[in-house]
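Quick entry between incubations.
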Amino acid sequence: MHNRWHPDITPVVTVAAGEALTLEAEDGLAGQLTRESTHADCATLDLGLGHPLAGPVEIIGAKPGDVLEIEFLEYRSADFAVTAVIPGFGFLADRFTDPFLVKWEIDDDAARSGELPGVAVPAEMFAGVVGVAPSRDRLEQLRRREERIGERGGPVADPAPESALPRSAAGGLRTIPPREIGGNLDIRQLVAGSRLYLPVDVPGALLSIGDLHFAQGDGEVCGTAIEVAGEVTVALHLHEDHKRRSRFPSFEAPARPGRHAFATTGIPVDDAMDLTVAAREALGAMIDHLVATYGFEAAAAYALCSAVVDLRLSEVVDVPYPVVSALLPLDIFE
Amino acid sequence: MHNRWHPDITPVVTVAAGEALTLEAEDGLAGQLTRESTHADCATLDLGLGHPLAGPVEIIGAKPGDVLEIEFLEYRSADFAVTAVIPGFGFLADRFTDPFLVKWEIDDDAARSGELPGVAVPAEMFAGVVGVAPSRDRLEQLRRREERIGERGGPVADPAPESALPRSAAGGLRTIPPREIGGNLDIRQLVAGSRLYLPVDVPGALLSIGDLHFAQGDGEVCGTAIEVAGEVTVALHLHEDHKRRSRFPSFEAPARPGRHAFATTGIPVDDAMDLTVAAREALGAMIDHLVATYGFEAAAAYALCSAVVDLRLSEVVDVPYPVVSALLPLDIFE
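Done. Structure below.
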């Protein structure tokens, strides 16, 4: 396991495009919270060990400029999961200053907890972190961009010097926040049957996946979902054409039962935590997609967005970058 | 028809609590766009005539402090609808400066348009404007609040002197933006089978409904949905207890097929167009609801929100106030 984005991390496996493989992942907190843990343990986590990732996976023939399609085929979860309220972290960090731990037992495809009696959350499992390695130039450019937000007094994901998992290269980027190359996207629609599109930045793409969530609400408001260890089976496809290449990741998903959707995302990379900027990005990318794919006039595409596209707050906690998704239901096309 | 919020507008009908009634409404643009209209006509609309409302409906026994529950039983649409890109209006008003008109023909429970060939939008009809009359004190307080936003240089819904429909009392509030008493909420989940909870501010409640939408995406990004004339049948219920009374409207709806949801909303009344403030409001109200209704610890409720509650941008165009909804799927309770 590693937990940084860096082009020098050696791949653990090499596959051909179109091939399926199963990856095994610890939970996003690296197993630091167990059935024996207490509320107080949420305050002493080593977050530097967070988001252990399976990978990198090298895809034969992938080259910068390609689009990598990750098709999510199947998820399997362990039988224990946690949701942690971590002091200083989360959308309401000012209101919830004490640590709090929800321990979930998973059985019959549902999660139940003594902390929330009477609640059974059905499985809607997905991967919270999916990303590819940045090139060396891109890595430096992204790092400087986030440093500038801190210099302006904006939020910083992780200001302190920290530990990292052993296979992480020195100087790699953290999984939080999400960026153009993916990362901690926390998009709850990435369940089995969905497809995520990421730009390829280095030869072989170097894909890593982790941070499995048994279920999560749009927004992931307290900063953790139902965090679980498990396995994910994916098929990896390469595209040379750029039809689905936009600045930020896009995806295709069964967002509502019976209404398969294609979605773009927006990340306010120059304006920390600004949801309006994120929503405008996601919407602008969706209009561009409708124009490029269906040949609509831009204004007609804009009107269609108002009529059918859903704007959702995918995550509002991965400081300094939230993710807004714009979902287009595909059953409107005859 | 009237199109202002004011306690002095005479009710058109008086009903007992629990009674059902059918209201007829023109489309939200007051029929100004027809099958004969052109793109250019979107630039010359008299927006002062917008949102013709059916009502007010007086509910016998309703008194300030009660909660009014509007149960939406059935919608029926006319066979023609429009989506208009109106210069100066909409989430991307800076990008789309020219008028544009999408004319929809409705047949077989789907809307189709020559401007968007190959598209058939299935019916998911709801009312965009639902609200009650404010008391005289509340009216003045809300007016001053919006004037202050303008004085600080913030966005103003409607700066110009304007026309109004004949039955509107002088000095009434516009339907845009949405407020504590409802108004132009544009919450696409208010389909048949849903229930909206509003605070009663004056004796008799004085409910009005209009702005029917054949369908709309979360956000209503261009500022208009699939605007249609039609009928809505509602049953009206009164509650003396405050269990579902929160600062902003809340609702219960079949948000996802098979996953009935209860939702709170957030409106950033002191911070124009700030989606983060709106999301925090909606989320805070949901945590309060989970604590009051299910007896959870607040931190456990916060964690549950992260696990299952969906944050959605219901509308981002009703300047100066967007609406964020937080949706709790009710099938998680055993």
